[in-house]
Amino acid sequence: MTAANELYEERLKRIKTAAALEKPDRVPVVPLANAFCARHMGVKMSEFCTNPKISNETIIKSFSRLGEFDGLQSAAFYATGLSTLWLSKVKLPGYDLPENELWQVDERELMTIEDYDAIIDKGYNEFLSDYYRERLDNLEAKLQPLSYMPQAQKNIEDLGIVLFCGGMATIPYESFCGGRSMPAFLKDLFRIPDKVQEAMDVAMVDILENTRQMLRAAKPIAIWTGGWRSASEFLSPRLWNRFVFPYFKQLVQAVVDEGVIAILHFDSDWTRDLEYLRELPKGKCVLALDGATDIFKAKEILGDHMCIMGDVPSSPLSLGTPDEVHDYCRRLINEIGPAGFILSSGCDIPPNAKPENVKAMIDSVK
Amino acid sequence: MGAPLSELMRDLVEDELFEGVKQQLNDGVPPEKIFAELQKGMEFVGDKFQAQEYYLSELIMAADVFKNAASLLQEKFQSDEKDKIATMVLGTVAGDIHDIGKNIVSLIFSSNGFQVIDLGVDVPVQRFVDAVKEHKPQLVGLSCLLTTSFDSMKETVTALEEAGLRNGLKVLVGGGPLDETTRQYVKADVLCKDAPGGVEIAKKLLGVN
User: Fold this and answer.
1) pTM for the full model?
2) What is d(CA B81, CA A43) in angstroms, rounded to the nearest whole number?
3) Domain A3-363 belongs to what topology?
C-alpha cells in the first residue's frame, strides 16, 4: 500500500466513523470550496467555472497550501451543471458577466403553469429532456464537460484526499421553484396546490430511479441531497409538511437503501423543523449546515440521531481573523463533537475568504 | 356584509377580497377608504409574520393579493404623494442580480405607506447617488445576496458620504449573508432581517407611529 493509499484509508475511516455517530481519533475536516480556490490561485473565474479540468487542478493546488485535511466536498466545478438542479440558466463570468465575477443563477419564469400538466402527462424525464432542449438552450449538450468528473475524483483520491460528495440530487420543490422562480412558485402553492403536488409526485418517481441508477454506476461514499429554497425559514409549516419533507424522506431513504450516506446539505434556516429529521434513518445521514440553522440546537435535537457537519459561516471566513475562526471551530469541535461531527465551512467557502482564515479552520482540528 | 376587507386581506382570501372591493366601489365607498382597509390588512400580515405565524410564502402571496386588489382601485384613485410616510431609494448593489428579497422589500414598504424608488438590480454606485440627489429620500435600502457584494455595498455608502448626501439619510441594508459585522463594515445605519421588520425599524428611525 502506498503512503497516499494509507492516508486515504485513515481519513476515510475517520469520516465514516463520524458519520456513524461514533468518536474518531480526531474530528475530521472536510471543506467545500470552489470560487475561493480560483481567487486564491489567481485563476480567472471565467475559466474556473467552465472547465472541470482547470477547476480540479485549481482546487488541488489551492488546498495543498492550506494544511492537512481529510476530504473535500467538491473535486471540480462546472457552473452550467447547476441548471440541472435549478431548471434556470446560469450567468457565466467571461460570457454574461465580467470575467472575474462569481457565476449567478439567473432565476426567471422559464417553467410555465402548463408545465405541471406536461410533467403529469409525460413523466419527468421526458419533460426534462424537452425543457433542457427548448428552455435551457440545449443543456444536455453543454453538460459534456462533466464527463471529466470521474478523473477529477481520481486525481484527488490519488493524493489521499477523500471525495465526500460523489453526486447530487434534490427534491421537486427545489427544481420547480428554480424553474418557476420563487415568487411565482410560492403563489402556485396557494393557488393550485393540488396540481403542484400531483406534478411533484410524478416527478419523484423518475428522480428516485435516476438517483438509484447514478449511485449504482458511481458507487460514491455519500451524495449531496440539498435544500435551499425549501428551508423552513421561507415557508409556513403547513406548506413545508406537504411539499418539502415527504419528498426529502423518500429521497433520503432511496439513497440510504443503496448503502450511500445522504448529506443533507441544508442552506438557510431549518431550525424550526429539526425535530422532523429524526424520522430519517439513524446514523446514515449527515446534516450539513451553513451557519443559518442553529447548529447547537441541531446537536441538542439530533445529536444522537445524525452526524452534523459545518458550519463556519461566510462572514468570519471573509471578514474575521484567524483567531476568531479558530475559536469558533474549537467551540464546534467541543460542543458539537467530538463524536458525530465533521468540521466544515458553512456551505461553500466564499470567494473573498482570507486564505489564512481557511487555514485556521483546517488547523483547528489538530 | 361579509368580513372586513382588512381581514380578508390578512387571511389571503383573494376571491372574496376582490369581490368585496368591487362591491364597496359600487356602493360608493371612497377608494381612499378601501385602500386604507387594504393597508390595514397588510399591517396584520406584517404582525403575523413577526409572530412567526406567516412566513415568506405568505408574504409573497399577500404582496400579490394586495397589488391586485389595489389595482381595482387604480382608475378611481391615485394615492397621494403627500400622504406618504417617507421616500426610500432601493436597489440591489452592483455586481449582484438577486431581486427576490429586494422586490419583497419594495412591495411591503409600498403597501405600508412608503414611496419606493426601486432602481432594480446590479445598480451602479453612481445611480444610487444620482437617485438620492433627485428624489431626496429619507431612506436608502441596499440589498445583496452575494458575500462578494459587501464591497459594492460599502462603496455605495461611501459614495453617498463623499457626495455630501449622508446627513440625515438613513441607510438600511438587508440580504441573506449580512450580519452585524457586515453592517458595520459597509457603514450602514441598520441591518434589517426581513421586510416587515424593516418597516418597523424605518418607522422608528423616522419617529412615525
Assistant:
1) 0.88
2) 51
3) TIM Barrel (3.20.20)
